[in-house]
Amino acid sequence: MEQNNKTAGSRLRLVITVFLALCMGGVIIYSLITSNDSWPTYISGIILTIVMISFNLKVTGYPKFVDWLLMIAAPPAVFVLTENYTHTMDQMWQGPVILNLVFFYILAFFLLFLTGRAWAAVTLMVLLAGAFGLANYFVQLFRSAPIFPWDIYSMGIAATVADNFSYTLNGRACLVLVLFLTVLGIIFKDRLKIKAGIPRFAAAAICFVLLGGFALYVQTDEAANRFKTDKTLFTPKVYYRNNGLFLSFLINIRYLNIEKPAGYTVQAAEEAAKAYLKPEDGADSVLDPSDPNIIVVMNEALSDLRILGDYETNVPVTPFMDSLTENTQKGWYYSSVKGGNTANTEFEFLTGSSLYWLPVGSVAYQQYLREPLPSLAGQLSDMGYTSVALHPYYASGWNRDKVYDLFGFDEKYFLDSFDDPEYIRSYVSDRATFDKIIERYEAKDEGERLFFFDVTMQNHGSYTKSFDNFTPDVEIIDGKGTYLAAAERYLSLCKITDEAFKEFVAYFENQEEPTIIIMFGDHQPADYAVSAVNQTDTSTLEGAQQQYKVPYILWANYDIEEKEGDVTSANYLALRVLEAAGIEKTGYQSFLTELQEAVPVITSNMTIDSEGTFHPRNDEAMDQILAPYSILQYNDLVDNEHRIETFFENIHN
Q1: Is the pTM of this model over 0.85?
Q2: Most C-beta atoms within 10 A of its C-beta, which of 245, 342, 400, 533?
Q3: Sign (positive or negative) of CA dihedral 345, 341, 414, 374
Q4: Are 648 and 588 in contact (CB under 8 A)?
Q5: CA 117 to each of CA 108, 110, 193: distance values in angstroms, whole numbers, following the listed order
């Protein structure tokens, strides 16, 4: 019997060893295929694989004290490996390291008491941390920001675009995965057991309570001050690097809800709004025959990478947009997001509210919008416009199908409303959305005025895959870098947008009805897509913010004031449209018009004052200037039971 048990144990050890070796080899081969990292990294992985195989075939078990040593060593090992997916730990502060170790030890012993076996506990911890760390690695690669607690709301939209990304595994991530598998290879022979019974399950319950208490504690100011955790939320990648992945994630749970601004009361909001309220006997604004059709095109990832560095291409990328001057206004706006979270730019543009007052990385569409909210769409509908939303993708993305109703749109057109549209790569082309606008325009009633809000998809990432229906024709002269091809694909897509926009403008140039078109990108593409041309100094706030700077272009088919060089932010951008169209503003919009004289740019990450000085988020002096804004936005977005309706909705004379 004993001999049979030994034989069975040897077979199991062999099966597990072969399985782990195949996994390690597969990870190395996949990384070699998808990445261009140096060979020493992969040689290290191959050596580790050989050592793991040899070790497991020779060693059948450990002395009891070694079993305990492995159990004690596992939590810090898993912590270190999880962090090394994306960065080294040389810049992590001492306090956060202590908190991370406490978390991993509580987790490890909870799993030990729950399962009763050290190998099972460590295996579960490795699978949890390894998978979460790998997910964070890919999220950072695709959108240049880490995982946040509220990303759970975005899983649906993430799943719909997942097939369009290339999952490149660099040498660092490859080595981390190989080391995780090595830990599994070492621990599965650990024989440490905890007998079943009331004491064991009581210990598991205590550890579970400790995990919950730990999660609550690290969200407090006392923990932040005592352990000196990084509180600089406006640079999430640095914040996660300094605090650690799991600790940062737990701390960020506190930001699932919007904190009430200091000094907020309904009376304080009414006081801030008082100077901009419309007289009670004032007439509401109504549609005038001279009012123009308004077309807003928020173009996915459209930007001008020339602001990031000097480079030359074989052909011009946006020659038409560059040439437009007559009846045209051009400028730049700073986006609150980069590489993703498109809905946040929509939110700021349509409502005039700012992500500056929301938790970094949050998405208002998914987290905070449950009730009707005053917006540009509702405002124009109340005047007599027909407000039309277009998005050539799934209606459920970012909750748009629900949010657009809350905003007061009269009509919505999503992917299923497009009849056999043109595709470029996996997405409906910009030209197809422009054609859809023209189709609706030509079907409108006599005298009807339309407001279109078109959120395009053509230029959506990723830019690493090849497609039969898309041949990049823009080349960066003497370009270099791992992601050079991605940058050239991206620029080629922008060139196609420029060509489609030229045709779109030409159509409305020949229409008699006054029409305004504004087009702007929602954000710049992710870091990897611009790395081949990016020469900015990201060590300074001003330099880092260059990657959030996006052009806008406003054109009309009738005489308007021509401007160029304006710099603003998304929360102010709709004011340009209303002013060009000659449409009266709400009290809130009048407040914003005055505020932008003192603070021309407000984003999730920073502000710029009237003298052009950049200020980081939570700058005390700027927060004092912006205090009325925070109070009014909270009244509008959160305290909607006491919302000052006449300030946010009625037109201000």
Answers
A1: no
A2: 342
A3: negative
A4: yes
A5: 11, 11, 5
